[in-house]
Fold these 4 entries.
Entry 1:
Amino acid sequence: MKKPGGDEIVTIDLNSGDYKIFRDAFRKFIDKEILPCYQQWEEEGLVPREAWLKCGSQGFLCPWVEEQYGGSGTDFGYSVIIAEELARAGTHVMFPLHSDIVVPYINSFGTPEQKQKWLPGCVSGEIIAAVAMTEPDAGSDLSALKTVAEKDGDHYVLNGAKTFISGGEHCDLVIVACKTDPKANPPHRGISLIVVESGAPGFQKGRRLHKMGLKSQDTVELFFENCRVPAANLLGKEGAGFICLMQKLQQERLVASISAQALAEKMLKEAMDYTNGRTIFGKPVSRFQHNTFKLVEMATEIELGRVFLERLIEDHMEGNNVVKRVSMAKYWITEMANRVAYQCLQLYGGYGYMEEYPICRDYRDVRVQNIFAGATEVMKSIIAKELGL
């Protein structure tokens, strides 16, 4: 198959060769190390450090990191596999957030000294990383950030607060988006990224937030009160933080789309198994025309999402700018996954409302997919701008 310009389209098969070996190995890891403990982690609201260390020791954290920093030097395809398999198992552990959303900032914008200091621990699981953008009064509008970092000799002094920080309780370092020049015009030119390490004076981790879903993910508030951080912890250039964030949002939203797609596939498969086996009025639930049509509609939407997503993954791995289409995927696939969750739960009837059935948890967990990493409304605004509207 060739593109319109005549260039051959490279198709990446993530279910063959070394990819398949890796996928099989990670599935076994999930079965052995995650599934038996996941309900307990959900109840405790935290994934223990032991799980992170086991994941790192087997090469499942940041596999793309270069070998000189402890990684395997793989491509993004291996990250796709990890995100897919976690979602298909219904286990929303924050390995992809750490590996494919936070750590890439260090890899792309860090100095050789910063990489050597932090990347090996991120790969091994000894360092858990988080990113802090959202504030109580600033979510999607990053230019409205109020957290400020003032230069004081060879240190920055941070003051401000962050909220909804996933992994914030466990994190050993957090990349903080803050203003080093509050008077910059336009405001986004004053934003910088500073790495704050756990234990820094003036850095406090607040209460664990109680969420609708994704309960095993520790989500907290963070506070910086005259927090002193070495100037050497500046990531990238001062005032370039907004540009750095924009460069990495393409992959963040792609990862979110991958997770939502895989979860939709999981929910449909389980709903089909249930409705084929559950009998009412003398025949399987799936054989009633209304229910059959619902299953067909979901299967069609899920297939459309899969085809679109696979091409996006290939383009992203080829280094192409796919901001518009990634925004489309983030908007459409996450909304589709929510529709699938609603319809699947309805097919279970009263049993779908019971916690012992996975659809109950999946229904709660999927709801945030079209909110985090850029809400649907933000994605539509980006698409509109890309379309020249």
Entry 2:
Amino acid sequence: MQSFISDFLDYLNVECGSSPNTISAYNNDLQGFSRCLADIGVATVNRIRPPHVIRYAAALKERKLATTTIARRLVAVKMFCRFLTNEGYITADPTATITSPSLWHRVPHVLNVSEVEKLLAVEWHGPVGLRNKAIMEIFYAAGARASEVTHLKPADLNLDSGCIRCFGKGSKERLVPIGERAVDALRDYIEQARPILARGKNTPNLFLSYHGRPMRREDMWRVVKQAAKRAGVDKKVYPHILRHSFATHLLEGGADLRAVQQMLGHADISTTQVYTHVDTDRLSTVHKRHHPRA
């Protein structure tokens, strides 16, 4: 089983151009599937049958995992089995007739404008402080993912035109405009702080740790959590909530859905449409609060 999983991961890397994070996630999901098969005595891929996949899904449900998590893990299994079929390792796809669990579009948690302003108004000090301020501004100004901010290079910035280049899922490239405050924060960091943090090293990444090493996604999480604590924002705050807030605030301000889709780097506009539900929810709250017959 492991050799087939390894071949599949190579396929994702070489032919699909999937990101390391995506490949790691698929590997984790398929290792879980492999363990489930081993528990029921299925040791080779040509013995996988639809009831085995259904049993795996049932086991996930028994663990009280979220529907979205179960659906994602089944997608990994489906892609794996389709790969095995296309490569001729098995004669029939055991997942062909199995559908993913029905999903309600989950309305993402967002911060209101006042809460975001508090986060961005946090006072930082020293070279690390200038770096943290630039990171916070970028998250909200560009709606970027933590992995995208982590891998930014100085060459990805065009501060004169006020835009940055992000590489999203599948290494898809997009240009995203950013505002003046984000541009100013980046200039301050690049001119005053980054040379100090680099410590004479020729490190390609834009954002560097105190020791001059490239920052990791975990470091980005810590910066955002620290900002939330300092700002006194009493919500669970993480990098992706700033991405959600970016999209929601744009749509609430009248931005075109297609434009928001491009800025977020969504391949399918239905993914972006989830943010319209946030605005609908806000309008419903306003209606209930102010309508005499609500």
Entry 3:
Amino acid sequence: MTNPVTDSIRECKLIYNTAVKNESAMILLRSKLAAVSTRLGFPDPKRENIALVASEIVSNQIKYAEGKGMIQIWQQPGPALDIFALDFGPGIPDLRAAEADGFSTANTLGKGLGSIHRLSDQACLYSRQEASGPVRRWSGTAVLARFLPGARNRDEAQASNTPFNIGLYSRALSDDRFCGDRVYLHRDGTKLRWLHLDGLGHGEEAEKSTANLAALLPRCSGPAALLGAVDKELRHTRGAVAIAGEADAGSRSLEIIGVGDMHAHFFEQEQCHSFSFAPGVLGKEHKSTASSRLKFDQHGLIITASDGIRRNWDTSNFPGLFHGHPQLIAYLLGNIMARISDDQSLCVVRQNQ
């Protein structure tokens, strides 16, 4: 049986987003988490863990971020329930020490970050301290806590039998009901194929132009053929720009091709390679384009993004981030580097070791 195609419109959803200035943020957050975790079928003990983790995150932001924090609830493919927190505080000097139970800089029991790791099915953190210089850059802490309703314990949740780790970020302009940005993903053995689209404009018509394309992913022979098929399908729509990619864990290879105003970046160690795509619009007029091929092993990371994500980021802006979990990378870049005048989306892919 053919593996189903993941559609970000249906399976990547921002459910709740709020600023964290004081303890009152916890009241509605708990209510939202209770409703979502019940709907996704979490058992009572895990629902209690979800509430405890959320409390720890909010408490830490209030203590250290001086009211400059935010917290989000996401549903991701799987399904997975993600709590993502981001603040604009001073950052953590020694993240490894702070993640250990018993560590505290506030004369408390010091179990906040350690308990987030212990109670979550998966958890990861990233922090950057304030730095002087002519250009002001983000400083603060990002926390991702993931919960999986079907996992019986943390070891089972963290064990992966898939060759790739994937992070998705998709958010409509003004958090509208409709989103013109869309990511389709298809896994077939050692291969991962994805199609990242940005329908022209935004709103309902932009979303319609990127719909009903899932069947093309398993049917086409590769990214170039996929992009050609999309071009034909979009001829009676307002059109879209897109990137098609295929990663193969067996051959440790990556192929990527695109048309229009989107961007992609390949990270290996501390080096970043950015791709250029042919100008134009699929379904309308565009110049011919060619695939880029390169080696793709566990040290590599590929990011595709719509033009709703600003391009002026590199390894020096976020030191160490691109060695982290793809989902944390997607959430952090999506929230910090978004252009609020458009739909926004990212797809982040790393090969499992």
Entry 4:
Amino acid sequence: MLRRRLDIPLNRDSSVRFLPWIIALMVYLAGLALAGTLVLQGTLQRWDASLSGTLTVQLPPPGDGKPDALAAALALLRPVRGVTSAEPLSPEATRRLVEPWLGTALTAAELALPQLIDLRIDPAAPPDLAALQARLAAAVPGAVLDDHRLWLDRLAGLVLSIEATALAIVLLIGGAAVLTVVFTTRAGLAVHHAVVEVLHLIGARDGYIAGQFQRQALDLALRGGIIGLALTLLTLLAIGRVSAATALFGEHVRLLPSLALRPWHWLALALLPFAAALIAMLTARVTVLRALKRMP
């Protein structure tokens, strides 16, 4: 369709020379917003899966609490209905948890780390966590039951807000693209008004004349969309390399999140140029048909 002869010399119109670059910029921004949303959503899902049914019990350091605090906590937790396991973490395992942040200069005794218990519960029949926390605090003063779901729910709310913001950005970009195509198409109609009027007078159908403009819009938007997609992929590749370069202590801590995109995520990004081209084509067609209806 893009190679068919155009009766209107639209290729000579200088008003459309910036359209591919404008579409490229819009596809680029939309691609970054979409990729960021998909990365956050995937990260949240992985955290949710890894923390499902997992809690942590923090006990005072051995020197500050009761000598039998750990034994008392285990004796209380293990018989509770809904608790599948309660295993204490060794001082070495606790030290390894804080090693990415504090390093290895301090020993476990100097750090005075709290005693930790890895508590696993049945997600299908969980215990009453509030009552369990009260019983635990009464048995072991200073003990804290850390429910990861609390901060994970807050994080989910934050991700939802970011997704809504990204969606609003994509919609604004789409609206700006539509307005750009409308302006460009009207400029083309004004420049080639005489040719369009002649075609209209000799009996050319409105759909035929609109097809001239929509093919040009489709061609230019598709070119710009491919350029924007290429820029998006290069930017994501650069961010991925920077994220890998900022990994501290192996892979434990990253100053930037890793870009773990699934195959269907890449497919969604690859469809952006075609979506932009389709929007541009339909916008140009509707704009021309509305203008032709006002002609005598």
